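Late entry, written up from scratch paper. The run itself happened at the end of the previous shift, but nothing got recorded in the book at the time, so transcribing now.
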Amino acid sequence: MSNKMKIGTFDLSKDGTYIIAEMSANHNGSLQIALDTIKSAKECGANAIKLQTYTADTITLDCKSDDFKIDGGTLWDGQNLHSLYKKAYTPWEWHKELFEYARSIDIDIFSSPFDKTAVDFLEQFNPSAYKIASFEITDYELIRYTASKGKPIIISTGIAYEDEIQDAVDICKGVGNEQIILLKCTSAYPAPLEDANLNMIPHIATKYDVVSGFSDHTIGAIAPVVAVTLGAKVIEKHFIIDKSIGGEDCEFSMDAKNFKDMVNKIRDTEKLLGLIDYSMNENKQKSRNYCRSLYISQDIKKGEIYTENNIKSIRPGYGLHPKYLSKILGTKSTKDYQFGDRLEI
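Output as recorded:
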């Protein structure tokens, strides 16, 4: 699949890397912080702000048994799932204001729905895309229902087996949606660099015939920058205005100063990667003036033999191309030359 896909007005085939600032729980339960986060993401150069649309009851059960206690070496170990999500969720009554505000300052906005009711709720805002979170890739009915809305669907692959990734792609295509973006993702918070396996980004694009990208949970900017060099067309990074506000996702989120630096590094990387272009532009042409060419290194009379003593391949580049040297050596000059003249045939 080519990168000829748009998310909103952003054309992945020509507009560069689509950079998503993931708000997640970094509003800390404050609508004003949520609005300020959107404003800051825009100022940092993000193309989009992403929300999460769920309630504790749509994502888990209010159950206190051990199954519902987090215990996997995470930042949230010891907490109950329902209690954590009750603290971390983005109130649905905020969404209208958040969507309107984002659009008023010209930053794209969409969300990760976690069940069908969230999809139905989000449809009223006509989001430019939908995101399926890593841990929801096994929820085939959610993927099918979300993809059926006909918008680009971005799917993180963090915890999926290969066959599940293929199933997700097939489900989307089965409902007529081929606007699929798969994000390489390491579902650890934060993720160690050695687990990033960024070489999978081009492999995912080829293996599943999709656009590929990177959802980053590492610390710092090096991973997303390297991801772009490997062909990632979408970068997603957890974003927080300032780490001093704390919160459930603070530790693996990037603050505004560093996010802006990451965006600048990605944009510089895009410039460095450029195009496959062998054409001769103006700067290249000017530089050719200092390449090698054939010049007269001793005075030559008409009829005199050209030798390695009286013509040389030297800088600058205004004389005859050096490729003719072997053909010219041993032949006779057709005119008088002085030291330092360009050889011309």
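The chain has two domains: 6-54+89-273, 282-328.
(Scratch paper discarded after transcription.)
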